[in-house]
User: Fold this.
Amino acid sequence: MAKTGDASDPLTTLQREVIACRTCARLVRWRTKVAKEKVRRFADQEYWGKPIPGFGDPAARLLLVGLAPAAHGGNRTGRMFTGDESGNWLFRALHRAGFANQPMSVSRHDGLQLTGCYITAALRCAPPLNKPTAREVASCRRYLDQELALLRNVTVVIGLGRIGFDAALEAYRRGGRITYVRKPAFRHGAGYRFGKLTFIASYHPSQQNTFTGKLTQPMFDRVFRKAQRVLTAPVVF
Assistant:
């Protein structure tokens, strides 16, 4: 069986397609502008400046879906949730929960490995003001749909933020894996069962949420403990 990173691996092929994407002109202009102008604290670094593919364990049973890369985080480092405070929060929590081998993610070459977990997003390019248009989100749907089809072992999905949560639900519904008449409500810590799939909603670990106390470390840890319980012995919410 091919492993991620092998030329014959479909997930690796998809990741290369994501990196080469230039579909959304506004996002191409913005990510390129940010990568060229940079910010003072990263002035000596070379920015990635391209779309960001998902990453993690191809056999993952836990899937995390966020909104989009940060302009000076993923857009700089080339990896989801890497190089910014949101990523610091996320990987500390994943490490505490046993899904990551280290509590930090600073670059694509820092030795980080995820076990049983895969991270992706609704949008693959950093959007201006962190606000993508509906058309831009729709343009990226094909990548998320293809990822979900390839990540066959996933049984728990954590939506990081309302957009990530909704994107995950809609993608699995488009793929025929789940059905619903009314979309499940986004409430931090809420869990929803659809057959063999469980969806858990979480506030996004953005500075807007963590600095204000809307999301605390214990609140975030409880989300991953809930995921662990479902993975170990499925429960009814």
